[in-house]
Amino acid sequence: RSENREDCLLRLLAAEADLAVVYDVPQIAPLALGGAFERVSLGPERLIPVAAPGLLTGSDLPYIGYPGDVFLGQVMDRALLPRIGRDRRLRRCAETALTLAAHEYARRGIGVAWLPESMARDDLSAGRLVHLGRDVPALDMEIWMIRLPGIEGTGWEDDWQRLADTLSLAPTAPL
Question: Is residue 162 located within the same domain as residue 93?
């Protein structure tokens, strides 16, 4: 299930999910977990600006925004949009909380979308999207797999360890 980062953490606390996979941008919106969660790094991810070929002409920058009350919206508002040159005229032409929708909007030529690079990779290789990295800022993020520690007796500990061993870059102790 795809949700806002804070909603994913709430689902863990309410025992509605066994694990969450979330983004972290420590310098902008740090993932403050305290000692309640155990986490494993799944590695880096880059949020990159992409658009349909030929979309950008002149100084106009039509873009697909994320709402300010979701994690990627906060990241855009704090770290990406302020770094866009003053020679560009920003114009929010669509808004969505879902990266999958932003991806599709970008493919249809509606505007620039900031997407996880892994999500855009195939479209970039096929020429359906172009990376605007020289003209528009990108952002480095981290991906974390998170769970509540101490769930025993269900075989979940073995499953978690298998996932951590398979996916992780560096397992970490509970925070």
Answer: no
The mean per-residue pLDDT over the stretch 60-77 comes to 93
Q: Are residues 161 and 87 in the same domain?
A: no
pLDDT at 1 > cutoff 80: no
| Residues 109 and 129 both lie in one domain | yes
Which segments within 110-162 are labelled E, that is strand? 113-116, 130-131, 139-147
Strand stretches in 36-159, DSSP E: 38-51, 60-65, 89-95, 113-116, 130-131, 139-147
CATH code of the domain covering residue 99 = 3.40.190.10
Total residues belonging to the chain: 175
pLDDT in tens, 21-48: 888 888 777 777 777 788 888 999 999 9
In terms of residue numbers, what domain contains 41?
Answer: 5-45+141-171
